[in-house]
Amino acid sequence: MASLFLKTPGPSQSLPKTHKTHFVLPQNLPLSWRSKYRAGPAAARIRCGLIEPDGGKLVELIVEEPQRDLKRRQALSLPQIKLSKIDIQWVHVLSEGWASPLKGFMRESEFLQTLHFNSLRLGDGSVVNMSVPIVLAIDDSNKNNIGDSSSVALVDDKDNPIAILNDIEIYKHNKEERTARTWGTTAPGLPYAEQAITHAGNWLIGGDLEVIEPIKYHDGLDRFRLSPAELRDEFTRRNADAVFAFQLRNPVHNGHALLMTDTRRRLLEMGYKNPVLLLHPLGGYTKADDVPLEWRMKQHEMVLEDGVLDPETTVVSIFPSPMHYAGPTEVQWHAKARINAGANFYIVGRDPAGMGHPLEKRDLYDADHGKKVLSMAPGLERLNILPFKVAAYDKTQNGMAFFDPSRPQDFLFISGTKMRALAKNKENPPDGFMCPGGWKVLVDYYDSLTPSENGRVPEPVPV
Amino acid sequence: MASLFLKTPGPSQSLPKTHKTHFVLPQNLPLSWRSKYRAGPAAARIRCGLIEPDGGKLVELIVEEPQRDLKRRQALSLPQIKLSKIDIQWVHVLSEGWASPLKGFMRESEFLQTLHFNSLRLGDGSVVNMSVPIVLAIDDSNKNNIGDSSSVALVDDKDNPIAILNDIEIYKHNKEERTARTWGTTAPGLPYAEQAITHAGNWLIGGDLEVIEPIKYHDGLDRFRLSPAELRDEFTRRNADAVFAFQLRNPVHNGHALLMTDTRRRLLEMGYKNPVLLLHPLGGYTKADDVPLEWRMKQHEMVLEDGVLDPETTVVSIFPSPMHYAGPTEVQWHAKARINAGANFYIVGRDPAGMGHPLEKRDLYDADHGKKVLSMAPGLERLNILPFKVAAYDKTQNGMAFFDPSRPQDFLFISGTKMRALAKNKENPPDGFMCPGGWKVLVDYYDSLTPSENGRVPEPVPV
Fold first, then answer.
1. Do B206 and B227 belong together in one domain?
2. A141 to chain B nearest CA, in Å?
């Protein structure tokens, strides 16, 4: 009955079947319960604990079950646009309201506001943050094919209809300007740009989405892809009075764990009774040298099994967005999306969503700009920004600890590059850097990359 | 007595001495009058007619006469930074409050907000527009020289102190990111970037300005450089109940005049009793192939002499800002600065602040984006945007008229390029395109460019 809101309950292909309960299981609350829950006085009390979604109402764009066949038939009669994997990830993001109040791919006015102001002004004059263009590119032949139609069907690579885009608007895709204003550079070699912009069509098409059914990937991880509505229900069920989100796209080491535990301690000190951690690995497109999602999820599970984080106060779920690597611009999107999932605290790292400059020997962004821009961003005033405290390996304690500038000689900084190099070479990091089970997953991952004939480990394919 | 607020009353070197009264003359109101004027009940009534400056109070950073010698002496004891011509133009802009509420060159938080949000959030939570970075670049040796000093002296090319910058903050000048986010391209050949960024230092220095005396150029045009405060006084004196600003950096033709006259007519229809036009040519840095300021001012005067615009309801003054040619980003600055001068209506043209792409055969910006971005820009909600109606030469009327799409064959579009080509070749445009006196100025200007030995007219030097 309520199955339209359930995550695929099939067995995991990549995780052990005895997965831990702190990995959130799909909720089986029937729809009628939810409505009652939300309408009653208890709901009012509980809702006070969760931050409101942007625009006041969580956008949900998935067609209800009784209409799906009708929409599938309608899609067959419309001009078709084939979606890439990244396009489908954005349909997923939009369909569940991560980008609320966006109701579909951006029209030009939303695109321009995003590029110039990193925010959208709503009809009532209020402002919501929106820093990353969520757009769909089409080419000349698509455009000709659409002609005067006001709606188009969006289909996957096997021509299965995924969604209908209504009241469409087609406008120019100035790739150079989009890239310059989003990344602050137009240097060739930006992973997302190479993947999704450089070879994309010269037009963008915006409109209102009707997504025919929930987006699934059938990779054994769908049940961990909770929507903002499902996360809000989970936080409500746990009586969370604060939710702090931790975005990550890398393996978790004990420094991260220390930070998350310390954050909860600080929130308790602030007077919150039950702060809940949303440990929220990014699940969409990542660049080739990042560790793929399935291996990261295995690694996260081992770390959690190790008991470093408390299952009672930790929700692990997958954030379906693709990764831009657009630093201070993108970190706003990462934060804003988590507001829509109910988080009112956001932990921001050093150089969030940063990477090396594609051409020059330096980081693309100033390591402090992400934190600074986030703290000043329009539409994020309601979100509490928690700057990442720097953790490093403390040789006097044989474990990760917050860096103490009075005794720098005691600390060892292990960068992501260093960590990957160790795992590739099957070497061990110092004891206490990461739990042994988590480390083994990393070593296994690099082991799984069959060396090519010249003996070099090939670049892994992005998920 | 009130001389500190007077414009240089010296004779014009480049304009006929019998300049028309619709060229605004400096006001001789003593300071004490102004205060009384502003404090009394009449002032309250009159101020209702003029839009408030951004931040509620017009910033004025010029040191009062009694302190000037003291400040000059203080400047001698401080580390010195040499200003370029463009830097001095920005000091001018800042000193008179065109960029209110900015009190000096941007610190990093203002710079980042400008790049990412085109706006600044003030202490009270309100938002003002600020789209173009107003920054001062220094190099490594400047930075070393400053050491731990919290103030620096800004000096001209003859080491005369211009200003003191206090409570300084020095931060990285990421030229690529600044350019990408301001222009939406990093293509080499952007005039402002080549002039003021590419070869500038790798650091920016922000702080609070104390400008030792009003900035003067001694080019015979200083008396037309009215400050926002002086313009506000002038509009008040004329009992303006609406002020509509027209930014220009090109010769005025009869299509412009038609638009300005028509705008006044529309404002009268809206119920305003005395709408006043601020005809506001840009006076700072322009690219080499633009017509220099002194020739434009001569041309404007001839056009006004011709009686196309009513002197009673027209104020001609020079806007001291340098030109970025940054399209939709810069048009916001052009509009915002005019709010500070009292304008509550802004006429936006087709492709404002636009230019050709430096490398590709296309316009750098979509011609409609300026208008669209301006209408959505944060902090400009109080400003009424008046889109430029397209005027062209109507062959059936032998004059400029608003384009009528029902009879396109009757209209001739004369582009700026075409206009310049005609003037260079001493050919005449069709009768009624521009008054003969104005046209003669243009022809004289191109005539004044001595052909070089190979017979080609050299590129003029920017003012």
1. no
2. 22
Among B116, B131, B372, beta carbon nearest to A109: B372
pLDDT in tens, A213-226: 999 999 999 999 99
A259 and A201 assigned to the same domain: no
| Cα B179 to Cα A28, B115, B186, B194, distances in angstroms | 52, 9, 6, 11
If asked whether residues A148 and A280 sit together in one domain, one would say no
CATH number, domain of B308, equals: 3.40.50.620
Q: What pLDDT, in 10s, does the model give residues A53-66?
A: 999 999 999 999 99
CA B168 and chain centroid, separation = 26
Q: Which domain holds residue B116?
A: 65-211
Do residues A82 and A180 share a domain? Answer: yes
Q: Is residue B15 part of a domain?
A: no
Q: Are residues A172 and A302 in the same domain?
A: no
Is the pLDDT score of A437 beyond 70? Answer: yes
Q: Say whether the ipTM exceeds 0.90.
A: no
Q: Which of B211, B235, B252 is the last residue of a domain?
A: B211
Q: Quote the CA–CA distance of B448 and B405 in Å, as a whole number.
A: 40
Amino acid at B27: Q
Same domain membership, residue A291 and residue A396:
yes
Instruction: Verify whether the Cβ–Cβ distance B186 to A186 is below 8 Å.
Output: yes
pLDDT at residue A17 is higher than 70: no
Inter-chain CB proximity B177 and A186 less than 8 Å: no
d(CA B422, CA B365): 26
Q: What is the CATH number of the domain that holds A72?
A: 3.10.400.10
Point out the domain boundary residue: A211, A233, A254: A211
A3 alpha-carbon distance from chain centroid: 24
Per-residue pLDDT at B456:
55
At residue B194's C-alpha, the angle toward residues A175 and B287, to 5°, is 95
Q: Which residue of B has its CA nearest to A125?
A: B381
pLDDT at B46: 35
Is residue B146 assigned to a domain? Answer: yes
Per-residue DSSP letters for B52-114?
Answer: PPTTSS----BPPHHHHHHHHHHHHTS-EEEPPHHHHHHHHHHHTTTTTT--SS--HHHHHHH
The pLDDT tens digits of the residues spanning B93-152 come to 999 999 999 999 999 999 999 999 999 999 999 999 999 999 999 999 999 999 999 999
Q: State pLDDT tens for residues B216-243.
A: 999 999 999 999 999 999 999 999 999 9
Same domain, B255 and B170: no
Q: Which two tokens stand for residue B126?
A: 């309100």
Same domain, A255 and A178: no
What is the total count of domains within chain B? 2
Nearest residue, CB atoms, B116 vs list A109, A118, A366: A118
